[in-house]
Design a protein that fits this description.
The protein is of the alpha+beta class and 124 residues long. The chain contains three helices and seven strands, in the order H-E-E-H-H-E-E-E-E-E. The strands form two sheets. A five-stranded mixed beta sheet has the order 1-2-7-4-3, covered by helices on one side. A two-stranded antiparallel ribbon has the order 5-6. The N and C termini lie far apart (67 Å).
Length: 124
């Protein structure tokens, strides 16, 4: 009898979330692109799709409300969402879904979204 292939739930979960996350982004003025393997995390790129999109942090908070039902309080967003600036001027945020570590001799898997916003070029 053949050994069954391991079940990989993360790609399935992330795929189920993607369409709603994209709809949130579009209503706020961004297009959302998926990249990467989705084996560990879900890597997303948000690209401004209109001249004056909503503030990035509002997009992140809306996605967090959809995914976890909560958001970080005003003034705590950068720490809570692990904000950083990446090469090319991309602004990056992380929404942690489950990254708590070992508990009862069981290691929690890491489930999170890694979202980069491309720089917005303002017309002169």
């Amino acid at each position: 009898m053949a050994t069954p292939k391991p079940i990989r739930p993360r790609p399935n979960f992330y795929a189920c979330c993607f369409e709603m996350l994209k709809a949130i982004a579009i209503t706020m003025g961004y297009n959302l692109v998926l990249h990467g393997s989705v084996n560990r995390d879900m890597d997303l790129i948000a690209i401004a799709w209109k001249d004056n999109p909503e503030p990035e942090i509002d997009v992140i908070k809306a996605m967090d409300r959809y995914l976890r039902g909560v958001e970080y309080a005003p003034g705590h967003e950068e720490h809570g969402y692990k904000y950083s600036i990446l090469p090319g001027g991309r602004k990056n945020y992380v929404i942690d879904l489950n990254r708590t570590g070992p508990w009862n001799n069981y290691t929690d898997e890491q489930w999170y979204l890694d979202i980069s916003f491309t720089p917005i070029i303002r017309h002169q």
